[in-house]
Amino acid sequence: MTFSAQNSGVNSERRLLVTGGAGFIGANFVHYWCAQYPHDRVLVLDALTYAGNRQTLASLDAHPQFRFVQGDICDRPLIDALLQEEAIDTMVHFAAESHVDRSILGPGAFVQTNVVGTFTLLEAFRQHWLSRDRSADLRFHHVSTDEVYGSLEPADPAFSETTPYAPNSPYSASKAGSDHLVRAYHHTYGMPTTITNCSNNYGPYHFPEKLIPLMCINILMGKPLPVYGDGQNVRDWLYVQDHCSAIDAVLKSGKVGETYNVGGNNEVKNLDLVHLLCELMNELAPDLPVRPAQELITFVKDRPGHDRRYAINSTKLQTELGWTPSVTVEEGLRQTVSWFLSNEAWWKPLLSAEYQAYYQKVYA
Fold it and tell me: Which of 36, 172, 231, 303 has the fewest CB atoms lying closer than 10 Å?
């Protein structure tokens, strides 16, 4: 069964509730959707924790079909009210605690948000779906990660949708739990759900604790570039706009109850990625405090339980739904570096005292 853009009402426009829509991937998705489908209703729910930035969505405040609500996905009465008053037909669930390092320091918040929060949303959406007579035009889409599959050896085939789950961090374990709940709600109750598991995203509006924005900002500030262990860990990098278009394809044509892996076909070693960023910064930033930027590379103690390699096989998404990534890692990194160079007013306020304290805990 596929999702139809036609609602049961008079209009064909969709009505989306996007959780975590002020975070990195969620905000990029909201900007993408409002540009692609300006007549669709887009309601964003975000708790505005440290990684949620209201300013990222400020340019959409004048959009007649956009609405922002600050709130917690564990707040069941709020979720029920929003689903009913906005007549939501599509929930796109991004909201999550998402940084492995933070999950090592404090796993409780990850279980609460990623497991309990997803359960709360599923229960609310199930009741909403039942009140709409189990409409096939409703959809609960859950955005997850490749980290639920564990770690690959250099010669192992890439993760597919049938790869057994083997999470290795509190973060990935909590996301695995949320995936299992979504799957169970489809198989137990028949709820119209889909799941995407994506590789490492990068692009505009990325919070500075993650690898690529961390390196960009530290280069601009002349600070060390901390590289875990030997820097040979491999990640498959996906430009965030390609991820948004993949979710679009799944919402349009994906079969309910199915999982689709989303990858960028860009496997890069962490150390090689840092060198690429240094080269781009040397080229694009004229007033670096340290030049060449490669002089800032510093190896630090490896992260506990650090997965060696991730790689995504997105053949199912490409063959069944016709999606392909459009941005190479070289193109995407150039665009990302240019964005950070042009948007200091966005990222500089994020380097708060709380962020600095976290940074010291992780990299000192």
Answer: 36
Domain coverage including residue 99: 15-205+236-266+306-327
> What is the CATH number for 80?
3.40.50.720
Q: Is residue 57 part of a domain?
A: yes
The total of structural domains in the chain comes to: 1
CA distances for 362 relative to 107, 161, 172, 175, 357, angstroms:
15, 33, 18, 22, 9
Give the pLDDT confidence of 45-83 residue by residue, as tens digits: 999 999 999 999 999 999 999 999 999 999 999 999 999
3-state SS class at 291: coil
User: Which pLDDT band holds residue 8 (cuts at 50, 70, 90)?
Assistant: very low
pTM > 0.90: yes or no? yes
Residue closest to 199 by CA, chosen among 267, 263, 259: 263
Picking from 246, 240, 180, 213, the residue whose alpha carbon sits closest to that of residue 99 is: 213
Catalogue the active-site residues: 146-147, 171
Cα distances (angstroms) measured from residue 171 to each of 107, 136, 144, 176: 7, 32, 11, 9
